[in-house]
């Protein structure tokens, strides 16, 4: 049975007179020779779980009340964005990971705490977050992973529109894809930073699984396949083997592909499962991506630089002077100060013919000693430096 403290108590019984414990039938004793533990009483287990649920609910309510007090302590602010501190949230979630001893894994606990924090923040006013729409895209999944479901998503038609809505203040933040583990950088996102004043306030890494879906659910019906160009590339081997004659049609997003596929029996879409649910499609096959580790990195766009959280990344845009060894001179300060460079990408600078800007990600915050020292030296060799953002590293 279960004791009031929640521990199992094993009932014992004296052997019948004239018989020893060893004389019991073999079935009454496990192979190890130890007496079998009594089965816990189901009703008592359920009562204990009900009691824990009440405690959890009470604690969530208490947390929500204290979160509301934070808003009062900050004074009369204008909007939800004034209450939201990404660096503080990252610190809280890292402590959740540090405390986790199971049995729930890190990803599950992060999701639970993210939703609690999202709901508590929404007491003031839900955050408005722009993403590449329509409903059902991987960008929307990244939004929910980073901000929780209490944030208000604003589906937009293009990456450019996401930047524009955040710049205009119609959205508090934006979510845009920046690179895929198999297909590389999304160039249109990098190009927007050449002229946009927005800052990177966070990053999200999302495991991307592609599914082939259609209205009928019959492979033999498929004559054309819609999807985002990157998704078509991520599943090109599977498509070559299974639908070699089908027309492959690129569209603006996977959700748009699903929207089109629901209107014709001879069409299919490559998209995430969520898009299939939104648009009522049946799954024909999946996951069909060529790489099992297929992951897309998204950036969170905002209007301000963030203070350090302790586990940060800094993104830079550097314009180099046209001189011998220019790139070496730009990169060497990071090596001298022990700063790890995570990524480097060049793009036409749009300031003149054959002029380029380098997008560089380094470990650490721009205010950290080694990074700040490297940036100070970098200024001697670069024509221009822009700090695009210093933000918490993605947790999972």
Descriptive tags:
396 residues, alpha/beta, disordered N terminus, single chain, D-Maltodextrin-Binding Protein, domain 2, 12 helices, six-stranded mixed beta sheet, globular
Account of the protein in words:
With 396 residues, the chain is of the alpha/beta class. Helix content is 35%, strand content 24%. It folds into four domains: 1-11 and 36-76; 81-208 and 294-303, Periplasmic binding protein-like II (D-Maltodextrin-Binding Protein, domain 2); 211-292, D-Maltodextrin-Binding Protein, domain 2 (3-Layer(aba) Sandwich); 305-392, ACT domain (Alpha-Beta Plaits). It has twelve helices and 15 strands. Strands 1, 2, 3, 4, 5 and 11 form a six-stranded mixed β-sheet that branches. A five-stranded mixed β-sheet has the order 8-7-9-6-10. A four-stranded antiparallel β-sheet has the order 13-14-12-15. α1 (42-74) packs across α3, α2 runs antiparallel to α3 (106-121) and α11 packs antiparallel against α12.
A few lines on this structure:
Residues 1-45 are annotated as: Disordered. The protein has 396 residues and is of the alpha/beta class.
């Amino acid at each position: 049975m279960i004791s009031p403290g929640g521990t199992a108590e094993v009932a014992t019984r004296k052997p019948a007179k004239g018989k020893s414990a060893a004389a019991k039938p073999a079935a009454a004793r496990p192979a190890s020779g130890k007496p079998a533990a009594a089965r816990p009483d189901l009703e008592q287990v359920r009562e204990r779980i009900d009691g824990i649920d009440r405690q959890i609910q009470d604690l969530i309510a208490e947390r929500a009340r204290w979160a509301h007090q934070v808003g009062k302590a900050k004074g009369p602010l204008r909007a939800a964005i004034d209450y939201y501190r990404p660096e503080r949230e990252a610190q809280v979630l890292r402590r959740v990971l540090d405390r986790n001893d199971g049995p729930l894994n890190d990803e599950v606990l992060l999701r639970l705490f993210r939703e609690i924090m999202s709901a508590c923040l929404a007491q003031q006013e839900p955050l408005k977050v722009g993403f590449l729409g329509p409903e059902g895209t991987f960008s929307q999944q990244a939004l929910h992973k980073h901000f929780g479901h209490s944030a208000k998503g604003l589906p937009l038609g293009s990456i450019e529109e996401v930047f524009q809505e955040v710049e205009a203040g119609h959205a508090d933040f934006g979510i845009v894809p920046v690179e895929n583990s198999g297909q590389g950088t999304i160039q249109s996102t990098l190009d927007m930073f050449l002229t946009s004043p927005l800052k990177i306030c966070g990053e999200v890494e999302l495991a991307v699984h592609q599914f082939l879906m259609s209205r009928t659910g019959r492979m033999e019906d498929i004559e054309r396949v819609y999807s985002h160009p990157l998704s078509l590339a991520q599943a090109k081997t599977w498509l070559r083997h299974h639908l070699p004659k089908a027309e492959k049609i690129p569209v603006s997003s996977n959700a748009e592909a699903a929207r089109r596929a629901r209107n014709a029996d001879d069409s299919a879409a490559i998209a995430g499962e969520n898009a299939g649910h939104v648009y009522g499609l049946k799954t024909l096959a999946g996951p069909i991506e060529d790489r099992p580790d297929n992951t897309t990195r998204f950036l969170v766009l905002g209007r301000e630089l963030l203070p350090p959280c302790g586990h940060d990344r800094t993104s830079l845009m550097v314009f180099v002077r046209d001189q011998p060894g220019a790139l070496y001179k730009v990169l060497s300060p990071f090596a001298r100060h022990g700063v790890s460079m995570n990524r480097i990408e060049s793009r036409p600078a749009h300031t003149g013919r054959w002029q380029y800007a380098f997008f560089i990600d380094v470990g650490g915050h721009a205010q950290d000693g080694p990074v700040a020292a490297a940036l100070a030296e970098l200024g001697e060799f670069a024509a221009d430096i822009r700090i695009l953002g210093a933000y918490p590293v993605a947790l999972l």
